[in-house]
Amino acid sequence: MQKIAIHHMTWKEADAAFKKDPVVIIPLGSMEEHGPHSVTGDFMAATEIAKRAAEKTGALYVPTVPFGNSEYFRGYPGTISLSQQTVISLLEDICTSLIEHGITKIVFFNGHAGNGPAVDQVARKVRREKKVMVASMDLWQMLTQEQKNGIYQEEKDPSGHGGEPLSSVMSYLFPQYMRMDLLPETWKSNENFGEFTIDNLLKIKLNASKANLYLNMEDISAEGIMGNPLNASAERGEKIVSSLVEYGVILVEKAKNTNMSLNQAFSAAKQ
Question: What is the pTM of this model?
């Protein structure tokens, strides 16, 4: 059996696999509240998507980083939040360890928006200092509006924290852990915070534009819900996961087939 999970390999097997210049997927997630009905460990979904993409492409993957920067969810039990600097250091050390043994193509499958700034910073540093190709995709932002319309078929987009797509994704991948019975029939999501009109966890509206206001989830919703999970289903989740795996396969294949080194690319651009 060909192993694709590096954590399932011996060091001899890893050495042989690394000599083939593989793409290595680093899945990221979080442990944080997702409403009273859904599990805290969304990193499990990132693991499954990375595994399926690796199986289809021959890429390798490492264990998912299960914690991220979840500062705005710290008021809810079960949330484990790392500082941004800890996330940055962790990701940089993982990349460095892979690069030291010959890995030149790294792809992050990021399953938590709070990790985005850390991924960007690490990817830029690795690119600059190690001359290694790094790509990433933000899993829960990948669906196009057309795909959402086809999957959700609701008048109002149910996307949002504690809503879609994650409620359906977890209903499909881990139905045994879901507790839809704990979801109240109604919940409150505040539209305002004092004089401010809330757009999302990070943004408030200013006429036709937006500014930043640093809110916590409990400032917006005591239940921890900003989207709408009422119509979440395993059937929806299967379609979503299939789409995300397809995006992952495309990204990995493009990385795999881009064989020009970054040094060569820089030299070619100067000519």
Answer: 0.93
